[in-house]
Amino acid sequence: MALEPKPRDFPRIRGAVTFYQVSSIITGVLLLALCAEVLIKYGFGYELELGGPAGFLGFVPRDTVTAVNLSTGILIVHGWFYVVYLFADFRLWSLMRWPFSRFIVIALGGVVPLLSFFLEARFSREVRAYLAAREADAATTVTVESAEAAQ
Q: Can you give the residue ranges of the DUF3817 domain (predicted)?
């Protein structure tokens, strides 16, 4: 028999799925920005610079950045948000009592471009449907028990 979430954890699961959704979208967007940055840097030989001689925001040849290197900034920010994404993944995974393989699949969403968007939609929908079904079952059980008690 598979483990199931406890009814007392349902409010925490709702918070966890919301946190997962937000972190998933942010991590996915940053991963796409990182992929674009890597393509521009290694494919075309330019880096993104903030506040340098090229203006407020400009592309400069690789390794010639004199101001703030946004290419490195995107890399760092994505790395930290991936840590937040993993925490959100762990929180949702542990509250839902899923198998470890599902944790790994969700974790891949932060390193495979576009995957986080698909996983976020699928798992959020799955969790919300599960909670709705369990709450409907609980409401039906309470109604039946109160009807039996009234007789």
A: 18-124
